[in-house]
Amino acid sequence: MKAPAWKGHKQGLPRKVCAACGREMVWRCAWAKNWDEVRYCSDACRRRRPRVDRPLDAP
């Protein structure tokens, strides 16, 4: 994905909602290469993410 043209106005940047806390995230240059995979706003939210439980009878 090509980085959006940023002229100092954050209103034009893409936004997402964090899957853990529900806060809105605004596109950052650090996320330019993997913006499609970004799901969490911080490391704390990534650690707190909902886990899928394994069945009890699984080995």
Would you spell out the secondary-structure blueprint of this structure?
Layout: E1 15-17, E2 24-26, H1 43-47
Antiparallel strand pairs: 1-2
Sum this structure up briefly.
The protein is largely without helices or strands. The protein has 1 helix and 2 strands.
Q: Please state the CA-atom Rg, rounded to the nearest Å.
A: 16 Å
What share of the residues does DSSP label as strand, in percent? Answer: 5-15%
Dominant shape: elongated
- DSSP, total strands: 2
Sheet with most strands: strand arrangement: 1-2
Largest sheet: 2 strands, antiparallel
Q: Quick check: average pLDDT?
A: 79
The total of helices stands at 1
Percent range for helical residues? under 10%
- Helix-strand string: EEH
Structural class: little secondary structure
Low-confidence stretches: none
Gap from first CA to last CA: 41 Å
Can you describe what's shown?
- With 59 residues, the chain is low in regular secondary structure.
- It has a domain of 36 residues.
- Helices cover 8% and strands 10% of the residues.
- It is built from one helix and two strands; from the N terminus they run ββα.
- The chain has a two-stranded antiparallel sheet with strand order 1-2.
- The protein is elongated, with a radius of gyration of 16 Å.
- The relative contact order is 0.21.
- The model has no long low-confidence stretch (mean pLDDT 79).
